[in-house]
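can u do me a favor
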């Protein structure tokens, strides 16, 4: 028998949103002031290091740096998945904020389709015909 998941108290949701926002702002500030192409303290993708192939997140830090500096085309070239993912998350946030019907910001039924999008993106960006998707 399946029971309903526990309800999260609204105060805890607000606290989690604040922690998430502060973390995102810290990451954005770090990437904004320290160019990933010029500083070596950023983590290296172990999948790429071991296989030579690009994973779905390869180039995301450089894409974020480009986006934060207004270089949209460079961001798209470095990691299109990040650009479209951030746009989708922003649209979802706006829709979620305007609608105010409650519910989940990220329903679990979306997880499998998003994982599939990531896998398809990873496969395509490693094919010669889709080299434009590689960083
Ligand atoms: Zn990678």
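np, heres the sequence
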């Amino acid at each position: 028998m399946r029971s309903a998941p526990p309800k999260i108290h609204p105060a805890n949701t607000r606290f989690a949103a604040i922690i998430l926002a502060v973390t995102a702002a810290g990451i954005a500030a770090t990437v904004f002031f320290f160019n990933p192409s010029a500083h070596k303290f950023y983590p290296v993708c172990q999948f790429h290091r071991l296989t030579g192939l690009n994973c779905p997140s390869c180039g995301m830090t450089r894409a974020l740096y480009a986006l934060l500096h207004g270089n949209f085309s460079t961001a798209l070239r470095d990691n299109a998945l990040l650009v479209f993912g951030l746009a989708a998350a922003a649209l979802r946030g706006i829709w979620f904020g305007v609608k105010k019907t409650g519910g989940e910001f990220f329903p679990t039924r979306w997880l499998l389709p998003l994982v599939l999008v990531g896998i398809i993106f990873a496969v395509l960006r490693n094919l010669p015909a889709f080299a434009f998707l590689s960083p």
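The helical segments are 10-33, 46-51, 60-68, 72-78, 80-99, 111-125. hope that helps!!
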